[in-house]
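Work Package 3 committed the consortium to producing structural models of liganded targets before the mid-term review. Because experimental data for this complex are still outstanding, the team generated a predictive model from sequence and the ligand definition alone, so that downstream docking and mutagenesis planning could proceed in parallel. The input record is reproduced below exactly as it was submitted to the modelling pipeline, together with the SMILES string for zinc ion.
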Amino acid sequence: MKAVVAVDIGATKTRVALFNSASMELVSKVVLNTPQEGGEDVVAGTIIEVVNDLVKEFSEWEVSAVGVGTIGPLDIREGRVINSPNIKLRSFELRRPLREYFRVPTYVVNDCVAAVYAEYMSGAGLGKKNVVYVTLSSGIGAGVIVDGHLLLGKDGNAHEVGHIVVSYDSDVKCGCGGTGHWEGLASGNNLWKLVKKLRSRWSGVSELHKISGVEEVPAVKLFEYWERGDEFASYVINELARINAAGVASIINVYDPEVISFGGSIILNNPKLLNMIYDFVKDYVINRVPEFTITRFGDDVVVYGAAYIASKPPKELLEIQA
Ligand SMILES: [Zn+2]
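The resulting structure, written out as tokens with the ligand in place, is given here.
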């Protein structure tokens, strides 16, 4: 029986899975730490080892294609990650070593491009032509389909929405070096900067306000304080919802989607935040507000997308990675 290999490479975790290429059912999945050192081919080498173990265990399956959704930025022609700010390796090869080893069609796209393709093929975007996927996680990104066309761009980075400017006079620096970027203020890795910035604007009695004066408060903690009813945490989350609304409104204004599917740990763990974003978005849009939904694939949205990319590659990608 034919299987496709589907891979999601994140800054910290990599998911490797086998899918039945006919039914698109997940056969098996392994989650491992993303290698942080070891040279250009180390990530591909790790994927090959894991796939070999899976194929030994599930010997009735024969690999017919490989799909990878990865953190960016990407050189999509080479199928290589270049100068990624979120991983120590910075740059690494994917498509060449995987294709040389497996000798089957191999495709490499940005992780959110894979995710939006999963939504389009069998999720919130099924039957629709204008679909956006947004991840609110350690970083912020999107994948976009307009009029049934998957947007890729000259290097495969057509939708680096995390670097939309949501605050032109902000002095908060993003990981990319820019200021006032959506990701720099609102992503899981950077939320502590927002907490720090908002401290001076707020006065009152709050445990979060007190501890954030002496230490960096991670995103998970901020949301815990919010759940417990901490007033400063509520203030920060309200501002966070506004920043996210500004970013999402820019997406609505430029891509005019029918539906936006949201994923990533921040939204998956705090679905209430999405209702707040929806309420604020009306203040910033010119286009009709689309349907908002949370991805039905949960943590596996990129893996599913990579599987669809492998089994039914979009024509836009075939022009680049034939
Ligand atoms: Zn940035």
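Reviewers should note the following from the model. The pocket of zinc ion is lined by residues 163, 174, 176, 178, 181, 183-184 (CB under 6 Å). These observations will guide the Year 2 experiments.
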